[in-house]
Amino acid sequence: MRHLFFTFFIFLPSLLFAQSAQTATGLPVQEEKVKTIFDALEEPGWGKGEVVIHQSDAIRQLVGARKHGANVEQTDGDSFLILDGFRTQVFSGNNQRLSKDEAFDKEKKIKELFPDLTTYVTYTAPFWRLRVGDYRTHEEAYHVLRQLSVSFPSFAKEMYIVKEKIRIPLY
Description:
The protein is α+β, with helices and mostly antiparallel strands. The protein has five helices and five strands, in the order αααββαββαβ. A hairpin with a 2-residue loop joins strand 1 and strand 2 (78-93). The chain is elongated.
């Protein structure tokens, strides 16, 4: 009987310390696992069917990870991913008296007809430029160039595609 009490008191502290962490309410804390797209696809549910994904663990670890060197810009509560991409250049002029007004005038005309297009009026001495859009591929930028040249034939002679850093909104 003494041996039983002796054994109980020796192992009691290790049993107490082996318990998981608890919240203030006394309930055990469960560690949250980061849920990936693979977990969501494999999750069972009524009417969902069964999805089995066969892949290496290396791929599972890469999904959702940010690429090294990717920049994130924050402005007015919005976040943007900065990447290499393409824009359609609509105007470029170096006449100090007229080019600024012309760039903003053309921007206004484009915004009236295409309110969803993002426009950028910039000044890099000695040029004022108007560029449109944030496109990952040359084809996307070319599609917009064609739409703009049909809508504004007087702008078409000086429009072309430029490679530039673009801003992709993060939601």
